[in-house]
Amino acid sequence: MRQEVSPRAVLAARKQFFQHGLGDRPLAALVPEPILRSWKRCAERGLDSAALPRLEPLTAHELSAIAERHERLRRLCRPEIESLYADAMQTGCVVILTDAEGLILDALGNADFAARAAQVALRPGVLWGESSTGTNAVGTALVEGRPIAVHGGEHYYDPHGILSCSAAPILDPYGHTVGALDMSGPAAVDHRHALGLVRLAVEQIEHRFFDEDFSGRRILRLQADRALLGTSREGVLVFEDDRLVAANRAGLGLVGADWSALGEKRAGDLLERLPETESETHALRGRGGGALYGRIEGARASLHPVRAPRPARREEGPLLGAAERAALARAVRMVEADVPVLIRGETGTGKELAAREIHRLSARGGGPFVAVNCAAIPETLIESELFGYEDGAFTGARRQGRRGLLREAEGGVLFLDEIGDMPLALQSRLLRVLQEREVAPLGGGRPVKVDFALLCATHRDLRLLVEAGSFRQDLYFRIAHYTVELPPLRSLPDRVEIVRALWRRLVADERLTLSEGCEARLAAYGWPGNFRQLAGALRVLAALAEPFRPVGEDLLPPDILAAPAAPASAETLDALTVEAMRRALNACGGNVSQAARTLGINRSTLYRRLFHA
């Protein structure tokens, strides 16, 4: 773990380094060694630390072409970027994905900080490599080949001192650096958990690389801890015939190898034997004698085997109360009647999970579910992403063009998340598509008929946006025929049970548990980021947990420890009960009898609590 360095110590180190050189005082005592190495590299390049670097962003067309080349990386990273989004929103951060050179492809997060960050060119289309932008988390992590946190004055350029950044390089199965993931926020805020969250996210991304492209090869999934097989913390080794051809970092570490082993080492050089049967867990032993557990895929394959697909991970639906489940059931009927549905709720309340559940339960469940986060796609790219384009529509466009996400949803469901963030110009184009049921790609292509059901979601009050002139009134009336309201986590009763249920979903290892005190603290916290923020906190605790030792309160972050630990009062619980009743009544269109049946209580009880309180 990185040792915390005080801002005063960093300022002293900067003064000595930039005014007097290295001198006799050991700067390593004031700043971490990777930061000092980066400062030296920047000084050798002649970078002026007092200036603001001249960073010319790519044009919209150039950025679109670059993003197209990295489409697979962006797709693989999207779940983790979405997962980090809640933390970014609540801590005033942005989540950033770059290519291997440090060029920012995507940036998603807190709008206020994003505006400040843009003043120092921390936005899509700008190169944040160390050679051009000095010491920074993205550029320095790519040079050092390891996760790096750079706080405040540790940045080489003075103007970047407003930033606190944590980044980790992303490696493909062949050991090549393909990009970096970063969380950046204001230096004045404590971001001590950011680097851990980024490292966990990169683990997940690198693990997802092995879900495709390895047909015809033997894949060994191994771990020293049997319970971690099947998780993103397992090691993966890929063999062609008997030769190691791909791996992840965990797999190489478990057999005492490094990336130079690819193409050079054989299975017998790394392990005493490979398992011979699939779908079973085998006890293995490395050449160093260490005990391991592993599962093999493609063990019985011939010279050109076809790997059986891995069983799909069961999608878990949203954690909902009876009233919300009833509202979702009605939303399914709306989808089947081709009536658009709007899902409203605070950030992190599970709007996309609810949309996926509606899709799964509907007659369109066999068709595609295409999710588009209107706030996550840069404004310069969203039009081509949604509507597609013809060959030669703009400089850098793919030769064969692109179908666009609206056409990808053919026969299924199109989910437009955070539709309140859609630019006005695109709102008018979307309205025409919904009215005419056809899409015209960029570049003058012929309109194409489309058939999809529409689900939209937002954390904003669209009526207020309409009044402010930032959302089209006609589009609002077109998409809001039926609205599902998702309550914030803090308003739900039985929050301890919610914490337990979400822990069981996220943590496969039954030996890892939470102490009662830890559960109570988690339940008492307000969770401004709702389920998504709670899920992020639980993932961090799972990474810190040890088998058979319940996670204690001492591992909780400071903001949760500072929240009141006492359980909710009787008055609070009573208010939550009445609120749940009101939601049920609203979901049932004011029908008291139906709402009472949904809640499993007598009609008279519901009537008395709501109308005679």
UniProtKB/TrEMBL annotation:
Q: What is this protein called?
A: Sigma-54-dependent Fis family transcriptional regulator
Please name the taxonomic classification of the source. Answer: Bacteria, Pseudomonadati, Pseudomonadota, Alphaproteobacteria, Hyphomicrobiales
State one molecular function term (GO): sequence-specific DNA binding
PANTHER family to which the protein is assigned, alphabetical: TRANSCRIPTIONAL REGULATORY PROTEIN
Q: Describe the location of the Sigma-54 factor interaction domain by residue ranges.
A: 333-543
Key words of the record: Activator, ATP-binding, Nucleotide-binding, Transcription, Transcription regulation, Two-component regulatory system
Q: Name one Pfam family in it.
A: HTH_8
GO biological process terms held by the UniProt record:
phosphorelay signal transduction system; regulation of DNA-templated transcription
Q: Does the keyword Transcription regulation apply?
A: yes
Q: Which positions, given as ranges, span the membrane?
A: none
For whether the record's keyword set contains Transcription, the answer is yes
Q: Which organism is it from?
A: Ancylobacter dichloromethanicus
